[in-house]
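Uracil-DNA glycosylase-like domain-containing protein
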Amino acid sequence: MIDSLTIFEQVIRDLPVDRSLTREDICTDDFLLQTEHELSVYYSPIGDYINPFAKVIIVGITPGLEQMRIAFEEMADALHHGVSLEEAEKIANYSASFSGVMRRNLVTMLDELDFATMLSIPTTATLFNEHQELLHATSILKHPVFYRGKNYSGHQPKIDRIPLLRHYAYEHFAAELNQLNEPALIIPLGRIVETTVRTLLHQGRIRKHFLLSGFPHPSGANGHRKRQFEDNRSYLNQQLIHYFTRSD
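Predicted structure tokens:
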């Protein structure tokens, strides 16, 4: 989505590249997209890149402040070094998506399900570097959303109760997935994401991708993550085996 990025290109180029960015650098009016019901939506380059040839779609709720910061830092640095807009948005996306503890937990759980072996890659972690061609990383609310200044968790307020959030989830996100060329495996991170994707599939708003059910949200803040994973491990593994051994 280069057209979206070009609107903010110069402001991103003006960001400092000689230090870590702060909240005050990026949560500014220059990047503010919309506000509603104590919710604030900011632009971030993490949401721009689309991989139309992806075989796997990993979907979160919305990028948090840390992912937003990394995306801006990677984008600003890439542009500073003369990288094209298209390549810079790709770098920002794969560097920032589910970064930190969340990515480590995500990789650990998927590797324990033998997901990497089924994909014929050494580890799920390589989806974010040498095997990027297989992955489309995104969120149902693709730009960072904050509720009362904190990362929006999807719980309060509910997505379906706020027109702003419904629009992003049911219009923007659906349109994004429909840009992918082939049906893929969707891995929704947590129940809120899974419910939203299932609704979109049921309503026919997105094509018939295969939805992995029961995968826990990998956030370090999810204290029930390990128990949920162990409870669902067998079912998750069965679904993956079914997907990778199916005959098209």
